[in-house]
């Protein structure tokens, strides 16, 4: 079903006014239908579900707001429920926006902790590709669009991550004498890495972007979980033994969490 776009006139300013306008356009709610609603300062996708207890608001890393609401609620009730969360949503969206400005892969890309200027090229090469010259990353695609450029960059980065980071994990495994079976590269949203009790470690492929020292810390972090599958004091002693400045690395990762939001729809 096509999303239904209610025509809310832009001169409706206050949330109350908007609710009145929305109520007047009488949104056609259907089971399972999705509507795009102009909310108080942001747009959101509305999903109505029978049997749901309360209004849920979700914000994707790409800044898409999705509201799911009980089907029994009226448009006015939903709109005022969303309006009550307005400040929370806007704060979150602003943070995402700031992050996007700091890390816009179409302008600037962090690679092994070093920022490269990004230049998009059109149709120089048949298949598209990435080339580095000095501190400039040339991204070549057939149509030169932002969308294809991001796709080409992502593919290139994932390949680079697989080549380089697996090699580094094996080196560190040799140095620390902590073995592992396999390393998997994942597209995690909220984690840099994880470990399984089965001897495998998973790493977010985006760690190809972070400084090598912090990357090494992450590998050590996951390797140490092969000995201790928890974050106990004994675990941290082990980490500290191999990586004394682990707190600095943790702080870097915390400040730069936004990297995990890059290359998402
Ligand atoms: Zn851990």
Number of DSSP helices? 7
Q: Write down the secondary-structure element order.
A: HEEEEHHEEEEHEEEHHH
**Uncertain stretches of 5 or more adjacent residues:** 1-33
Largest sheet: 4 strands, mixed
Write down the CATH topology of the largest domain.
Answer: Zincin-like
Report, as a whole number of angstroms, the end-to-end distance.
Answer: 21 Å
What is the CATH-assigned architecture of the largest domain?
2-Layer Sandwich
Rough outline: globular
**Order of the strands making up the biggest sheet:** 1-2-4-3
**CATH class annotation of the largest domain:** Alpha Beta
Helix residue percentage: 25-40%
CATH homologous superfamily title of the largest domain: Metalloproteases ("zincins"), catalytic domain
Radius of gyration (Å):
23 Å
Overall domain count: 2
Compute the number of strand runs: 11
* Helix-and-strand structural type: alpha/beta
List keywords for this structure.
Zincin-like, YgjP-like metallopeptidase domain-containing protein, single chain, YgjP-like_metallopeptidase, 11 strands, alpha/beta
Structure description:
38% of the residues lie in helices and 22% in strands. With 265 residues, the protein is α/β, with parallel strands linked by helices. The strands form three sheets. It has a four-stranded mixed β-sheet with strand order 1-2-4-3, with helices on one face. The chain has a four-stranded mixed β-sheet with strand order 5-6-8-7, covered by helices on one side. A three-stranded mixed β-sheet has the order 9-11-10, with helices on one face. The radius of gyration is 23 Å and the shape is globular. Residues 221, 225, 231 line the site of zinc ion (ZN).
